[in-house]
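Example for tutorial group B:
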């Protein structure tokens, strides 16, 4: 059986040392800061509007390496000089890491997801996608626990917010985004199961896109073959969904009504089929949406930079599959995009 991770890795993943870029051979094989910094990949421009968002000559800086599959980055704002820190996951190893700009990556939480011994039926026991809610809690798509879980960052106490739909346990929640009113949109594919769709642990019938309302009610919004990353437009009138589907590598957009529920069928927002057909590494996976509506959606070749109407401006590449991304800050307070790219954590500066 071909796993999602194999498909997302795609081609050209012989490791960072295989990239024809100076400095790659000097990467430390440790989970910490890279010294000296390694610059990898590059930016491919498709539209002249791109330079207003990112320098087309920019390259990604590798911050740390040697993760099994880096995922789920989330920026946590605080009162530190740089204004916060980044959390990210290695779901297969059930570990969450923290990176504060200018410092080394450190282990933050182990286990990040499943709190019990891992049964053989579970392939990814750790946390995956994450976001910060309006009260400052870290909300995670806990693949191993098969639940949406809130974590108090001060005490690390855990609260299960949702683990069932109509009395049946979820598959392995993968990614989420949170509306201003506290509603949580999340996906529930079978990626965390060793046997995927054929897992004996499955209880729900399909792979769903869900909404947990502020009162705790969970509703199924749609079913897709391989739902993955989710994001909200700044006005919260559009919900984006990435399909990690080699048969349909696309990002969909759902119109939302004032009640936060779909007000009509999904439309095609961005089709990545041709980039997948070219053999570029990766599939549609995670995303982040900027305050101006720019969508940063991972997919074949890296992070696709998209306007609010779905126009492709450019692709940020690292030479490997990029699983997810999150907007955060640099040491000087400037904006950047953090990338969880296969075995590495990287970042690239943004304008503004």
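The residue assignment follows.
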């Amino acid at each position: 059986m071909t796993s999602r991770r194999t498909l997302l890795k795609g081609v050209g993943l012989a490791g960072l040392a295989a990239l024809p870029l100076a400095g790659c051979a000097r990467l430390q094989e440790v989970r910490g800061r890279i010294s000296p910094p390694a610059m990898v990949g590059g930016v491919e421009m498709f539209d002249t509007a791109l330079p207003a968002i990112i320098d087309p000559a920019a390259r990604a800086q590798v911050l740390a390496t040697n993760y099994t599959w880096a995922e789920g980055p989330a920026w946590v704002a605080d009162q530190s000089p740089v204004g916060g820190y980044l959390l990210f996951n290695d779901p297969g190893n059930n570990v969450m890491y923290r990176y504060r700009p200018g410092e080394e990556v450190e282990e933050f939480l182990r286990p990040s997801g499943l709190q019990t011994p891992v049964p053989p039926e579970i392939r990814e026991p750790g946390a995956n996608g994450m976001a910060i809610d309006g009260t400052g809690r870290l909300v995670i798509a806990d693949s191993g626990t098969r639940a949406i879980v809130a974590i108090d960052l001060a005490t690390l106490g855990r609260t299960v917010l949702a683990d069932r739909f109509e009395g049946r346990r979820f598959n392995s929640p993968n990614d989420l985004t949170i509306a201003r009113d506290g509603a949580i949109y999340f996906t529930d594919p079978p990626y965390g199961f060793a046997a995927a769709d054929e897992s004996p642990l499955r209880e729900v019938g399909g792979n769903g896109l869900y909404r947990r309302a502020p009162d705790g009610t969970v509703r199924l919004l749609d079913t897709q073959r391989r739902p993955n990353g989710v994001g909200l437009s700044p006005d919260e009138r559009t919900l984006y969904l990435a399909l990690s589907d080699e048969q349909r590598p696309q990002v969909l957009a759902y119109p939302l009504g004032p009640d936060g529920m779909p007000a009509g069928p999904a439309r095609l927002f961005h089709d990545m089929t041709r980039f997948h057909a070219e053999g570029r590494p990766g599939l549609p996976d995670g995303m982040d949406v900027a305050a101006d509506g720019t969508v940063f959606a991972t997919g074949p070749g890296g992070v696709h930079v998209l306007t609010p109407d779905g126009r492709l401006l450019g692709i940020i590449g690292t030479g490997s599959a990029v699983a997810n991304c999150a907007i955060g800050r640099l040491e000087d307070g400037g904006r950047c995009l953090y990338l969880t790219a296969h075995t590495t954590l990287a970042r690239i500066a943004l304008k503004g």
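Residues 10-30 have pLDDT under 50 and may be disordered. Compare this with the pattern of hydrophobic and polar residues in the output above.
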